[in-house]
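Appendix C: a fully annotated inverse folding record. The material below is reproduced so that readers can follow the format used throughout the book. The structure is listed first as tokens, followed by the designed sequence.
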């Protein structure tokens, strides 16, 4: 009887332990591995230097379908994550568990962003565009772009530094600092300027920076990309003959108004090194961040005898090209007559 009693006690204890283990196992599974984020597609959470753990939890509730914030907080506390948060952009996948997300958060295992900055004119435009896509401060980037010593360390000046940026789509980490971004752009710049491109620039007699400055004028001059090589050839003809470029976009840049539809004599008199009606040669810097297409158009410019260009009177954004001043003046009169007719 005594043996039977002990056996019953052991069975009872064993059953109790099994129940406890089962409860612990279920709780552990729910805490660690059970799906806790119900989203229909991958969403991203952002952790910057100002975000604390409570703010992150609210973001997970509001944007990432967190079903049990309590379990996420408990596991995060046990793993000491709240005091060791890393900045970055993190992916929350459909059905993701607490443990899987916290592993990424604790290790700083980010998902990169696709960074783009095409169609940018001024430094402030670039800084604002990048600030909207990255954690960095636009003001921090502007300080670097305006720092003569820093620009010189990369081989540029504050006037030419925008030619460092080659428009493309880049994968970078969201928490990239302004200085790290500049270093990345320098690597991309060096990769873009291949021996073949450098050789073509040398044949023209221009440095890569000068090619980019000319490309920026070409791109501002015409809305028709197929005209880029023609316009580039025209300006190269003028440079080689020592004729001032007399490019209207440089006047708009000097005046500070790209919306001008008619260049007047008072605009041509603006005293600025960017005014190519008053100063021969290329301006000291680009009018915009030139596209790769306009850069390659300069490097592969069309060989012709054009020296003059005038917008077509049909306002198509295209141009009439001329070899002689007399021919150009006829084109200009037609365009001016249309401006007058339209009251511009």
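Designed amino acids, in order:
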């Amino acid at each position: 009887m005594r043996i039977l009693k002990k056996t019953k006690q052991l069975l009872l204890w064993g059953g109790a332990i099994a129940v406890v283990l089962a409860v612990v196992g279920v709780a552990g599974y729910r805490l660690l591995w059970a799906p806790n984020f119900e989203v229909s597609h991958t969403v991203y959470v952002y952790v910057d230097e100002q975000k604390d753990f409570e703010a992150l939890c609210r973001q997970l509730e509001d944007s990432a379908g967190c079903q049990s914030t309590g379990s996420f907080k408990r596991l995060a506390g046990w793993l000491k994550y709240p005091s060791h948060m890393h900045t970055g952009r993190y992916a929350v996948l459909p059905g993701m568990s607490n443990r899987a997300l916290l592993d990424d958060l604790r290790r700083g295992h980010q998902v990169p962003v696709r960074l783009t900055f095409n169609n940018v004119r001024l430094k402030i435009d670039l800084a604002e565009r990048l600030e909207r896509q990255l954690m960095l401060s636009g003001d921090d980037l502007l300080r670097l772009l305006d720092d003569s010593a820093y620009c010189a360390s990369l081989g540029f000046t504050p006037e030419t530094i925008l030619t460092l940026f080659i428009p493309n789509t880049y994968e970078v980490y969201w928490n990239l600092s302004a200085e790290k971004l500049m270093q990345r752009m320098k690597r991309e710049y060096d990769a873009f300027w291949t021996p073949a491109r450098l050789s073509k620039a040398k044949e023209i007699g221009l440095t890569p920076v000068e090619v980019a400055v000319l490309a920026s004028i070409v791109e501002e001059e015409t809305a028709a990309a197929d005209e880029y090589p023609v316009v580039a050839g025209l300006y190269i003809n003028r440079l080689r003959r020592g004729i001032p470029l007399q490019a209207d976009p440089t006047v708009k840049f000097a005046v500070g108004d790209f919306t001008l539809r008619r260049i007047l004599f008072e605009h041509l008199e603006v005293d600025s090194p960017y005014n190519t009606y008053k100063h021969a040669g290329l301006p000291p810097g680009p009018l915009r961040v030139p596209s790769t297409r306009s850069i390659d158009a300069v490097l592969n410019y069309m060989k012709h005898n054009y020296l003059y260009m005038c917008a077509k009177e049909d306002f198509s954004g295209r141009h009439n090209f001329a070899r002689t001043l007399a021919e150009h003046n006829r084109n200009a009169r037609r365009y001016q007559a249309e401006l007058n007719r339209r009251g511009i």
